[in-house]
User: Which sequence fits this backbone?
């Protein structure tokens, strides 16, 4: 699919800077909240390919976005491994059977992804069919390190004391766990590709709380393993892969060596500086502060232009926020954002 | 006071690498929890100079630390401005009268620091007297930006939507607020110096959630104003100032230009790299990941040495964690840490 989004990731010519937004299908949209109510709970929404398709397409109805992203959760893999994912309103994800002991890790094995996670591939197929080639579809997984933090902590965490304790005390068990997760993620993403995903993201939400050495050893290494294990070329298409480590802007040079096509950036780094450091090797995605969307249309346009000016005349940039759009955002401001990106003349 | 701690901050010769630990007087110590129980609540503990002194000295009884830090809260300034600080167990700080409107900001003025915050100077005097010159005493303030986040959000926040909205929509009011806070912080720190503080820290807990431009305009600028406004030389002593922006390692070059003597580092940057970037201009403080303290003594010693090896043979380094010690930490491991730093031979 010769879209601007795919072309930008592959550093080919584009007609304009493409944009999609992390969590573009989400709680800031009233129609999303309606569908979610219909589904009952969050996990049922993820597990119904029809409803997942419905919410995936919702933002495309409203905004001129350049890509759709599969609606799912990053914790589907540990759920398929038997940890019992559930959600408590206002508290985030939890596991009923977290990894409490080294034995729990020893007992863990790669699930039958084609079976246990069939609902995800199914959702990809349904979305793909309903998209009718309008825009490319992004598939995704959580990074092994990020999945491991939830599996060991039993949910969200403040200090990540359990998972970091495990990492420092029993690095071998930690590597064992990360290997199983990486192997599972490879199958998972390959199934998404076979079902029709045109591009892939690996979300490393919690890599940024490691130090440089631990990041390389426990997070990046396993994302690199995934990148090496997936079908980058499938049925004549090149499937670009984007790695996003929140809080990882200090390590762009290392991330660029992972074999990925693009790096997602949070807003703490200037796009210009990221381009200078790794722009010859990879494409870049990002990086407007999501809280700019709390401001007036005038401010939004100014801030969008400030980002785009840093990449003027060049390809290799996909516009996005530096983190997911927040539930408090006014959907009108999302429209201002998308239109501002598209009305910017990159070549003038 | 010719201590290793002060000398390291001023990049003078030291006999060994000095160490203190953020939140060294805190919940990980059973004796702290006892005193806090005695005080009733957290704010009463801060407001009693006797009890504040008691908890300040507790870690020095157990560990061979090179500095004491005033026990207080970063939110004493907004409390003195009439916002009504209170603490809800497990939820962090709250304000009963947060800044909800632009009028609220217009009505704000610099409090009579000598009067409203006399309890802090009083605590400094009492601690200083009880320290008997054993180690230097560190005074501190929260950064204007960090104080403003709590004042506008009404407490802790997840997305900081209100304060960022204010910053983007009404930058003039934001600057007005930050100016009052900076002016107040100058008086506050000068009073701490007069009461006996030997060194100062400015804690910028939330600067790291800004982008580079906003960080310079709304956080660093006001820390620089404070640095310029305080008595750096008092009664024959030089009072070094350390700035700590959590998540600010991308901006070390800018921070080094603030006029500070030292920069506090979180653990996401290698000490070696920070030294290469700004080590000729400022001293550095940090930067072990606090979660290393969940590991075995052997791992702690290895990780301490890994940090210290990066500064071998040079002065200008104060050992610390990259963030506060966590309540879950075993005090025995704090001892392992302090002893590991002191038994390291920096010159061999």
Assistant:
């Amino acid at each position: 699919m010769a879209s601007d989004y795919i072309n930008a990731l592959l550093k080919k010519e584009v007609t304009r800077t493409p944009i999609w937004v992390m969590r573009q299908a989400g709680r800031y949209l009233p129609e999303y909240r309606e569908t979610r109510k219909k589904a009952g709970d969050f996990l049922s929404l993820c597990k119904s390919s029809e409803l997942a398709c419905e919410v995936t397409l919702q933002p495309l109805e409203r905004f001129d976005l350049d890509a759709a992203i599969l609606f799912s959760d990053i914790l589907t893999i540990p759920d398929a491994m038997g940890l019992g994912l559930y959600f408590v309103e206002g508290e985030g994800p939890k596991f009923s059977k977290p990894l409490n002991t080294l034995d729990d890790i020893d007992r863990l094995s790669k699930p039958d992804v084609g079976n246990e996670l069939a609902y995800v591939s199914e959702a990809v197929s349904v979305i793909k069919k309903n998209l009718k080639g309008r825009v490319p579809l992004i598939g995704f997984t959580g990074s092994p390190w990020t999945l491991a933090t939830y599996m060991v902590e039993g949910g969200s965490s403040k200090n990540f004391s359990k998972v970091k304790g495990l990492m420092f005390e029993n690095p071998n068990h930690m590597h064992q766990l990360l290997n199983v997760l990486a192997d599972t993620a490879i199958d998972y993403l390959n199934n998404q590709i076979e079902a029709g995903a045109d591009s892939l993201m690996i979300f490393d939400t919690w890599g940024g709380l490691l130090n440089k050495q631990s990041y390389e050893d426990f997070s990046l290494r396993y994302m690199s393993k995934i990148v090496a294990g997936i079908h980058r070329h499938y049925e004549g298409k090149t499937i670009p892969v984007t790695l996003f480590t929140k809080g990882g802007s200090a390590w762009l040079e290392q991330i660029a060596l992972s074999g990925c096509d693009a790096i997602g950036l949070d807003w703490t780094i200037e796009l210009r500086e990221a381009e200078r450091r790794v722009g010859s090797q990879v494409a870049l995605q990002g990086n407007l502060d999501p809280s700019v969307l709390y401001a007036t249309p005038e401010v939004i346009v100014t801030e969008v232009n400030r980002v785009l000016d840093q990449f003027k005349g060049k390809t290799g940039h996909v516009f996005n926020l530096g983190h997911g759009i927040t539930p408090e955002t006014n959907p009108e401001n999302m429209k201002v954002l998308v239109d501002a990106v598209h009305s910017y003349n990159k070549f003038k």
Notes: The CA atoms of residues 125 and 302 of chain B lie 39 Å apart. The longest helix of chain B spans residues 171-195. Chain B has a mean pLDDT of 96. Chain B is about 50% helix and 15% strand.
